[in-house]
Amino acid sequence: MIRGKLINILAAIDTNYLKPLIVMLKSLFTTNRDDRFHVYIMHSSLSEEDISCIRNLVEYKGHCMTLLKVEEELFQDAPIFSYYSKEIYFRLLAPYLLPKELDRILYLDSDIIINGSIADFYNMDLEGHYLATARESIAFLEWVHKKRLGLPKESGYFNSGVILFNLEFTRKNISLRQIFDCIESNNSKLFYPDQDVLNILFHKKVRFIDKQVYNYNSQFFWLDKLKSFGQKDMVWLQKSAAIIHFAGRNKPWDSHYRGAFKELYHQYDIL
């Protein structure tokens, strides 16, 4: 089978997120059968067994995989909260650790399922932009985060779970030293560590995407359903959202999860 243009995918995980990553990749390959993927995995401590598990899936589906080992000490002084791991910072290194010939890559959190084609999103025009991503879902929270970080009123605050990086443009304009200086100088402000750093450094040149399509926040499904008088139900969502993000701490793979997405998530889990 002749597949379409190569799409570069980036993920950063520790062993605790191995299973969600596998499900995310299964959903990606299932709903984008006509595309070719090169999956880059950033990690600091995956076991050989973990790596084999990912590689077996990727290569069995006819795609490529590259590992990028990140030294743990790089972010030893960066703020980490109990519900985050140091791997959340690894996406910040994408422009500098990935091969120089890559001009773009799509970073995806592992608490995501791909529910439709991502080709149009991946191939969108990024001229003059560091990245393409989705704004914060709630306008008031966006205002709060901008105020907290001292961002200009006209800027937007974005989510870092789905990011299409313009690697070439970023390498030319933002140095790795600036990344680490930003973490150090804003240490006490970093509530959403990697996300805050990206917003501080890149907010001037961001292309915003349709969050309902390419970074649908599952936390607001009940609200969308309520506001639409039931029209925006699970059938609507599966037809309209290409990327569904299980943001927050309530995850559909947890044994105690009782949300609306358990069945949808499980259909990719059992593949």
What would you note in describing this structure?
By secondary structure, this protein is of the alpha/beta class. Helices cover 37% and strands 17% of the residues. The protein has twelve helices and ten strands. The model has no long low-confidence stretch (mean pLDDT 94).
Provide the descriptors you would attach to this structure in a database record:
single chain; about 35% helix; Spore Coat Polysaccharide Biosynthesis Protein SpsA, Chain A; alpha/beta; globular; 3-stranded mixed beta sheet; about 270 residues; 10 strands
Percent in helix: 25-40%
Number of helices: 12
**Count of discrete structural domains:** 1
CATH fold node name: Spore Coat Polysaccharide Biosynthesis Protein SpsA, Chain A
Give the name of the CATH superfamily: Spore Coat Polysaccharide Biosynthesis Protein SpsA, Chain A
Shape: globular
Write out the strand line-up for the largest beta sheet, numbering strands in chain order.
3-2-1-4-7-6-8
Question: What is the SS-derived class?
Answer: alpha/beta
Which value, in Å, is the CA radius of gyration? 18 Å
Top CATH class: Alpha Beta
Low-confidence stretches: none
The CATH architecture would be Alpha-Beta Complex
First CA to last CA: what distance?
21 Å
Mean pLDDT: 94
Major sheet summary line: 7 strands, mixed
Number of strands: 10
H and E order:
EHEHEHEEHEHEHHHEHEHHEH
Percent strand equals 15-25%
